[in-house]
Amino acid sequence: MANIVEMPKLSDTMTVGTLVRWLKREGDQVKTGDVLAEVETDKATMELESFFDGALLAVFVREGSQVAIGEALCAIGSPGEKVAAPAPKAPAQTAAATASPQAPAQPRAAPPPPAAAPSPAPPPMQSAPMPAQATVAGRVRISPLARKLAAEKGVDPAGIAGSGPGGRIVRADVVAASAGRGIRGAAAAGAALFSKGLLQEDRLVPVSNVRATIARRLVEAKTQIPHYYLDIEIDAGPILELREQLNAALEQEGVKLSVNDFVLKGAAEALRRVPAVNCSWEGGAIRYHSAAHVAFAVAIDDGLITPVIRDAHLKTLFAISSEAKALGKKAKDKKLALEEFTGGTFCVTNLGMMGIDRFCAIINPPNAAILAVGTATRKPVVRGDAIVVGQRMTLTLSGDHRAVDGALGAAYLAALRNLLEQPALLLI
Which has more confidence, 136 or 351? Predict the structure, then answer.
C-alpha cells in the first residue's frame, strides 16, 4: 500500500507551506532521508525529506502551490502501484487570499513531471524589498510558458528579473521585458531608462509566507510593545584602526573582520556588564536569560531573517566573525535550520553599510531590546581645545518599556560605548 507524504509542520508558527520545487520526479526511486522537495515556511526555505523507501508514484501539488499542514504532497510505494490523489482535508489558504479576497488561490491539481530548477538565492529592519533573483549558479528559473514566449519574442531570460515564487520568471515578466521594461532586457531597455514611460508594470504580487509573517509580527510588535529610543554617538576611530591592523596582520590566515563583527561582540559583552537588558516580557513576569544569544538582521529576497549567534558572550571576536559570515550566507541561500534563527535574546540590525546615519528599529519579540547601527561618518569633532576630523557612529537602542526602563537602557549603551571606544577590550 502506498505511503502518503503530507505537508509537515516545519516551524513553530507554520500553518501553510509553499512547495517551491520538486527535487524528485514521478517514477524516481527514493529512500529514507532523500530530499524530495524544497518547502518555504513562514520563516525559511527548508528541505522535505522522505521517511519511506520506494518509487515516487505521484505528486499531488504543483510547484509554487501553498499547501496546508497535513495535506497530501505525494505518494511513495511499490513501482507500478496505482494511487489516487486523496481528498483535501481543508482548503489551502494562500497568502494571496489573505492579502486580497480577489487574488486567486494557487491550483493544486496533479502536475506533470517537474523540470529541474535551482532554488532561489538579499537590508534589515526597515528596508525595502529587493528584486527577486531569477538566475542561480548560471541557470535560469523560468516557467515553461514563459520560456516558450521568450523564445518566440527573442528575449534572453538571463536578463529578466522574475516576479514569481522564489524569483521564478513568469509570462508577465517576459511580456514586460519584450516591451522594453525588463530590468536587464534588450538594448531598448537602456533608452527606456531615460524615457517618461512607466516605472514598472502594474501588477499584484501575492506575498510569500515569509513576508506575510514579517508583516504580522511587525504590526504586533509596534502596536503591542511600548517602544522608546535612546541614541548615542560614539568615536568609531578606534574600531576602524584596530580592524585595519588585524585584517592586515592576519590576511594570510583568511581573517577579514567587519565593523559589524565588533558591534556584535560588543553587544554581547555589554549584556555581560548590564545583564538585566537580556530579558523578555512574559505578561505577568519578566524572564531574565542567563546566556546572550545575539541575533542579527540579514536581508533576503522577501524580507529579512535574524540568525542567532548562541552564547555570544562566551565566544571570541574571531569566532563571532566566522559564525556570522556562515549564518549570513545560509540565510541568503534560505538554508538556515530552525534552531539557527530562533531563540535569540537580543538583536542587532545594521544599515551602516548602506550609508544610513541613524534609524530606529522595531523590537523583535520576545526580545526586550534591539540595537540599530548607523554608518561611520567623518565629521569635525572637538578634542580638548581643537577641532579635528573624527569618525563618528550613531547607535540607537529600542527598548520595551515594560521590561527595560530608560535608565537601564542608558546604562547598557554606556557600557557598549566603553567597549567599542576601547576595542582592545573585545580581544580579551
Answer: 351
Domain that residue 239 falls in: 221-427
> Cell triple for residue 372?
540599530
Task: Output the CA angle 232-234-239, nearest 5 degrees.
Answer: 145
CB 60 within 8 A of CB 110: yes
Q: Is 423 in a helix, a strand, or coil?
A: helix
Euclidean distance between the first and final Cα of the chain, in Å?
62
Number of domains present in the structure of the chain: 3
Q: Provide CB contacts within 8 A for 38, sequence distance 6+.
A: 19, 20, 21, 23, 45, 46, 47, 48, 119
Q: What is the largest CA-CA distance in the chain?
A: 88
Mean pLDDT, residues 75-98 taken together? 70
User: Dihedral angle at the C-alpha atoms of 96, 99, 104, 110, nearest 10 degrees?
Assistant: 30
Coil, helix or strand at residue 269: helix
| Of 347, 354, 381, 187, the residue nearest 277 (C-alpha) | 347
CA-to-CA distance for 155 and 169, rounded, in angstroms?
12
- What are the backbone dihedrals phi and psi of residue 72, each rounded to the nearest 5 degrees, phi first? -70, 135
pTM score, whole prediction:
0.64
Distances (CA, A) of 386 to 236, 382, 421: 18, 6, 20
Q: Do residue 289 and residue 348 come from a single domain?
A: yes
| Helices within 254-384 (DSSP H only) | 259-273, 317-332
Query: 249 and 159 in one domain?
Result: no
**Are residues 414 and 291 part of one domain?**
yes
Residue that has been written with the C-alpha cell 515553461 in this structure? 144
The three-state secondary structure class of 12 is coil
Q: Which residues pair with 235 in a beta bridge?
A: 392
β pairing state of 346-350 and 294-296: parallel
C-alpha cell at 362: 522595531
Active site residue 401: yes
* Grid cell locating 426: 573585545
Closest CA to 398 of 371, 364, 416, 374: 371
How do residues 260-283 score in pLDDT, each as one tens digit? Answer: 999 999 999 999 999 999 999 999
Q: 144-153 and 171-178 helices cross at what angle (nearest 10)?
A: 20
CA distance 130 to 303: 8
- Same structural domain for residues 88 and 144? no
Catalytic residue, chosen from 227, 289, 293, 401, is 401
Contacts of 366 (CB under 8 A, 6+ apart): 280, 281, 282
Complete edge-to-edge strand list for the sheet that includes strand 16-22: 45-49, 35-40, 16-22, 66-68
